[in-house]
Each structure stands twice: as structure tokens, then as C-alpha cells.
Design a protein that fits this description.
Helices cover about 50% and strands about 15% of the residues. The chain is of the alpha/beta class and about 210 residues long. The chain binds adenosine monophosphate.
């Protein structure tokens, strides 16, 4: 099954993509995680995009399209995948539509004020990419990753000024992608609540319905 999860930063799509990746036994492809690991490894690409990522600005379409097209050809994608964070612009969506027959598009609806509150409480493990929230998904030990025990951080792009810019970019460039997918019947809308399990159940209903 090939799925697209679209939602604003902080809507919980990454958390849900991980849950469904395990449930459906298909990889969750987070373009944000791919790019952050390039930055962390100080690769040539990583050094080039570091400032862009930290400011929450989108990297160029041709760069991200190439990365995703290469990633979905890998053997672990043979039974499908979940795209988390792609497509984020109309041009990315057009290329994807040309190359891939997507089964379902899940759109995460959430109000901007809820997003700001959620992103402000977000803490991330740089090593395993797991995202926690101080209220809705706290780590077992204070500020420590449950899995690898690394210290959790607030990502540069989760700081309040950058959050506002990211939401502006989302509304300007990604909402038109949603408008584009609205026209096809494989698109489903989830009204996100603060309860992760409730959101999982809503998505499950969309994914398994015929
Ligand atoms: P995310 O973790 O999905 O919020 O992504 C973090 C950052 O990676 C974004 O703010 C962008 O700088 C970059 N990024 C991720 N996905 C894309 C994409 N599809 N197109 C352009 N830039 C992206």
C-alpha cells in the first residue's frame, strides 16, 4: 500500500506514520528525517541545506524529488510505503502523480493555535529521530530518549519564531497540494485530537475501508 500523510508540522503525521509503518510492515519515509541525517553527517548536501532546514524553509523541489524517487526504488519499498512530508508543493505533487499510483492520501486537519502549542512542547531525539511531547507523549525519564537514553533537544525549527514561518510556508505552499488531492476520492481527512490512539483509529478506518 502506498500512502501519503499530509499535515502541518506538529499535526502528528510523523508519529502516525511510524505506527502504520509497523502495522502495515512498510517503511515510513520522512523527508525531514532524511534531510536532517544529511545535515548531521555533514555530507556535502547536508552542509548545503543546513541553514534552510534550521530556518524551516523548504529545500528546492528538484533536490527533494530526486531523493524521494531514489528512496522509493529501494527493495524495502516493494510492498509500499508511507510518505511523511512529501509532496509539500504542487510541483512535487505533479511529479509524484506522474510516477506513482498512490492508494490513499490522509490529510491531518488541525488548527494553527493547537499546532503552536504542540510544536512548543516537542522534544526530539537526534539519534533515533523519535519525537516526544512534554504533555501528550512524555519520555519515561525526564528529557531522555526511552530507547537510546540520549538527551532530548528542541530542534532549531521548533523554536517559536521559526514555527510561525513554517506554518506560513505550509499555508502558502502545501495547502494548495491538499486542494489538489481533494479532487480525488482516495483522499481522507482526519480531524486531529490530542489523543494519539483516537487519531490512529480514525486513520485505520480510512486505510482499511474499500
Ligand atoms: P519536517 O520534519 O517534515 O517538518 O521537515 C523538516 C524540514 O526539512 C522542512 O522544514 C524543510 O526544510 C525540509 N523538507 C522536508 N520535506 C520537504 C519537502 N518535501 N520539500 C522541501 N523541503 C522539505
Amino acid at each position: 500500500m502506498k500512502l501519503i500523510f499530509i499535515g502541518a508540522p506538529g499535526s502528528g503525521k510523523g508519529t502516525q506514520a511510524e505506527i502504520f509503518s509497523k502495522e502495515l510492515k512498510i517503511p515510513s519515509i520522512s523527508t525531514g528525517n532524511i534531510l536532517r541525517s544529511e545535515v548531521k553527517s555533514c555530507s556535502e548536501l547536508g552542509n548545503r541545506i543546513k541553514d534552510t532546514i534550521n530556518k524551516g524553509i523548504l529545500v528546492p523541489d528538484d533536490m527533494i524529488i530526486e531523493l524521494v524517487m531514489k528512496r522509493i526504488k529501494e527493495p524495502d519499498c516493494k510492498n509500499g510505503y508511507i510518505l511523511d512530508g512529501f509532496p509539500r508543493t504542487i510541483d512535487q505533487g505533479v511529479v509524484l502523480d506522474e510516477k506513482v499510483n498512490i492508494d490513499k492520501v490522509i490529510v491531518f486537519n488541525i488548527k494553527d493555535e493547537d499546532l503552536i502549542q504542540r510544536l512548543g512542547g516537542r522534544r526530539s531525539c537526534q539519534k533515533c529521530n523519535i519525537v516526544y511531547h512534554i504533555k501528550s507523549k512524555p519520555p519515561l525519564l525526564n528529557n531522555e530518549c526511552d530507547l537510546c537514553h540520549s538527551k532530548l533537544i528542541i530542534r532549531d525549527d521548533d523554536k517559536i519564531d521559526v514555527i510561525k514561518d513554517r506554518l506560513e510556508i505550509y499555508n502558502k505552499l502545501t495547502v494548495p497540494v491538499i486542494d489538489h488531492y481533494k479532487k480525488i476520492d482516495k483522499t481522507h481527512f482526519i480531524n486531529c485530537t490530542d489523543c494519539i490512539e483516537e487519531n490512529t483509529e480514525s486513520i485505520r478506518r480510512c486505510i482499511y475501508e474499500n
